Sequence to fold (315 residues):
Amino acid sequence: MRAIVTGAAGFIGSHLCEYLLADGDDVLGIDAMTDYYPLARKEANLARLLGRDGFTFRRGDLLTLPLGREFAGVEALYHLAGQPGVRASWGPEFAVYLERNVRATQRVLEAAHEARLPRMIFASSSSVYGDAETCPTAETERPRPVSPYGVSKLAAEHLCEIYRNSFAVPVTSLRLFTVYGPRQRPDMAFSRLITAALTDGTFPLHGDGEQTRDFTYVTDVVSAMRRAALSPWNGVANIGGGLPVTMNQILAVVAELIAPVRVVHHAAQPGDARHTAADITTAREAFGYRPVTGVREGLAAMVEAERAAWTVTRS
Fold:
């Protein structure tokens, strides 16, 4: 396939590009290189891709790039670009989320429609559910986001459905549940926790630690995206890890893998759902998705990658 990945320099985007290249795809990566977290992290992600056969990179904003020209001849578009982060989405920053998650997605959909793009995968989020009434949560559950970030992702997802139903844009929205793995964004919990354990630092824990998350390993996620792109199925599907665990359980695993971490307790934050769990029946039946990486195995891979990075930094 000739594929485009937006958000190619990000955590999931860089893993997806590597996965597609390994499968023989030609990949055009697009990224605005925004500064939500240090650009050095994105540049390091890109360094793994630049110079590889089949990969081309374009730095630019989806709101200003000539997307019609970029989309010509493309067989699959993976739209991962956007503004991440639940806790940062309150107040005046919400304007950024509207720009990068809603307006940018609408422009991508317009270009996909005009180019008659054969396939589009949109990276949605479990944040659209908020505090779901049932767990595991199926796609038929009424979305009730509890953060402005969740609102922006739900709005973008609705746009995908509108363009799919009105103009037959073949788009599938994947609701990703708490993705983790090597190169995870530095603001995310596992990255901060492992860094604290490796440096004898402290880890701020919001809430009592009994909140649960359906943690999903990044390789399982990009495999699901590839499977969805190769499938004729369109719609909305959950992508989860299959076994929700508590933060207290995660702390115990990290203590075994590295060392106990000094935890500083804080009140729960506005916008943080108490529990998340994905019913992945739709993804399993539609395009054969099955997560294969358990949390302990995935955390061990993160620890190994972080240790290697620390060794390189110190040398």
